[in-house]
Amino acid sequence: MSVVRSAVHAPGVARVGGLGREFRDFILRGNVVDLAVAVIIGAAFGNVVSALVKDLITPLLAAIGGKPNFGALSFTWNKSHFAYGDFINVLVYFIIVAAVIFFFVVKPVNVLLARFKPTPEAPAVTRDCPYCMSSVPAAASRCAFCTSELTAIDTPALA
Fold first, then answer.
1. Domain 14-115 homologous superfamily, CATH
2. DSSP string for residues in the chain
3. Domain layout of the chain by residue ranges
4. Which of 16, 22, 29, 70 is most buried, by CB atoms within 10 Å?
């Protein structure tokens, strides 16, 4: 005689196992993992672009234009102080980052994708069945939908 012992579980333990399994399946889905990798790589790429702009491009603009930092620009009107220089700094930074991303990421990727883009297939030569108005191959002698006999036509594409 064998004795079957059942494990005593606290309420909800079985649910946690199912919930944990469901969470694991959600996390290990391909698109969630891809998104996580994209966010991490995007953050790292953002740091690289930020360093490029801050350490190379902005000093280059300062050498040409004479003023790399507009943070001190401001004006006072009716006893209110408006520091518009910081906004100009952020705007210049945004334009530079957008240009760097466009010229060093978007443009090369578009060229690469255009190079490997498959050529579209030529559309199949079809004609309409005069009885059921279904689209059938031009060389067909009978309609596949209503089985009516069709008259043969000369198609230059088939010659």
1. Large-conductance mechanosensitive channel, MscL; domain 1 (1.10.1200.120)
2. ---PPPPP--TTHHHHHHHHHHHHHHHTSHHHHHHHHHHHHHHHHHHHHHHHIIIIIHHHHHHHHS-S--TT--EEETTEEE-HHHHHHHHHHHHHHHHHHIIIIIHHHHHHHHHTPPPPPPPPPEEE-TTT--EEETT-SB-TTT--B------TTT-
3. 14-115, 125-154
4. 70
Closest listed residue to residue 139, CA positions, set 148, 151, 123: 151
pLDDT one-digit tens code per residue, 27-77 = 777 677 778 888 898 888 878 877 877 788 777 777 777 766 777 778 899
